[in-house]
Every structure is written in structure tokens, then in C-alpha cells.
Design a protein that fits this description.
- The chain is an alpha/beta fold and 219 residues long.
- It is 51% helix and 13% strand.
- It has a five-stranded parallel beta sheet, with helices on both faces.
Length: 219
């Protein structure tokens, strides 16, 4: 089944030319996806987007010269928050993963993954706004628990907000969450916005990270 009737426009930023072109060819072969540009680094991403080549999703390498993935993700999150960022890296240390997610990335994948997982990650970021594999989830939990003793007193949440937060950690969409909770999509939006403010996060990934850190859900 198609994600939508509109092709998802993807940009790839990676300074390794052979890998970047291989990824572009692979993603271009997926149904519903079109590559609109490639870039060697974040500066080229900015240049292309400022020239009105605005993708729906950027597959973004973490380590690039001149302007790396951290800075690029932060710039995109600030200036083009509707562009979804999927981080790509050879490194799976928890500090790098968490830092990228806090800069606005909706997910984080390794360069050694199989094509099937890449497709799954792209679909998940497009449809559900986040993607976390078991490997990456484990790294996040490890890193976040290191800071557990420095956490502030947890904010007060209603039972319905807690239920919503747990469901956010599943693979279902916000629309499906509304159906499962027997409420309207507007009410789900209210739960989400309330938790964004209470938990001081800006995305579904932030909600998932909070739930994982506090033992409220497993991904």
C-alpha cells in the first residue's frame, strides 16, 4: 500500500560519494520515494533548500566536513521544522545518538543496515514521525539512565496523558492512537501539546525518549 498519493521527496547528505550515490539509487527504487538532491555537507543542504529545493525528508550523515549533521539538523529544525530528518552514521554511541535526536532528528540508523530496514525506517519517519530500532533504543536507554540522578521532579500527568504517552511508543499513528483511546484527533493533539509543554520536548521522539528514560514504555 502506498504511503500517500504524493511521492515523498528525499535529500541525501553524505560526504562519501559512492555510498551517497548508492543510497540515492536504492531509495529511488522504493515505491513512493524520489531523490530531489544530494549534498556533500550541511552547507550544500542549506544552499539547495534556500534555492527552493525543499524535501520532505533529509537522510543526514552525522560526520561531514564544514557543517556536520548536528549543526545541520539544528538548522533544519529551527528553520524548516516540517522537514523530517533521519540521521545516518557508522557510530552507535549513546551520546551521538541522543545529541542528534535532541537536535531534531526523527530517527537514527546505522550505515550497515539492510535495505529492508532502511525502507522501514523511511516509512516510519514519514508516517509516525520517528524510528528507533532495538539496537538504537538500547543505546538511548543506556545513555539516558546515566543522567537519571540529575532528573528534576517528574511533572504531573493525567492518566489519559500517561496512556497517550505509552501509545506514542508504539508504531501506530496519532490518528490510530485517537481511535484506540476512543477520543477525537483534536483531543489527541491536546494531549500531545500538553505533554510537549510539561516535558519540555518538541517532537514524538522527545516523548518516546522521556517514556523510555522513566520506565513508562519499551520500544
Amino acid at each position: 500500500m502506498s504511503i500517500s498519493s504524493k511521492s515523498i521527496q528525499v535529500a541525501i547528505a553524505d560526504d562519501h560519494t559512492l555510498l551517497r550515490k548508492a543510497l540515492a539509487k536504492l531509495i529511488g527504487s522504493f515505491d513512493d520515494y524520489t531523490i530531489i538532491f544530494e549534498a556533500d555537507n550541511g552547507k550544500e543542504v542549506k544552499k539547495k533548500i534556500n534555492e527552493h529545493l525543499v524535501p520532505d525528508l533529509v537522510l543526514l550523515d552525522v560526520n561531514m566536513p564544514e557543517m556536520d549533521g548536528f549543526e545541520t539538523a539544528g538548522w533544519l529544525n529551527k528553520n524548516y521544522p516540517r522537514i523530517k530528518v533521519l540521521a545516518l552514521s557508522m557510530f552507535n554511541d549513546e551520546r551521538t545518538i541522543i545529541r542528534m535526536l535532541r537536535q531534531g532528528a526523527r530517527g537514527y540508523i546505522m550505515k550497515h543496515i539492510e535495505p529492508e530496514e532502511l525502507k522501514k525506517a523511511l516509512d516510519s519517519v514519514v508516517k509516525r514521525n520517528f524510528y528507533l530500532s532495538e539496537e538504537i533504543s538500547g543505546k538511548i536507554i543506556s545513555g539516558l539512565h546515566r543522567d537519571a540522578d540529575r532528573e528534576e521532579e517528574p511533572p504531573s500527568m493525567t492518566q489519559r496523558e500517561k496512556d497517550f504517552l505509552r501509545l506514542c511508543c508504539s508504531e501506530i499513528t496519532y490518528k490510530d492512537i485517537a481511535a484506540k483511546m476512543f477520543v477525537s484527533p483534536r483531543t489527541v493533539d491536546e494531549y500531545r501539546n500538553s505533554l510537549f509543554e510539561k516535558l519540555k520536548v518538541k517532537s514524538r521522539v522527545g516523548l518516546v525518549m522521556y517514556a523510555m528514560r522513566n520506565g513508562m514504555a519499551e520500544v
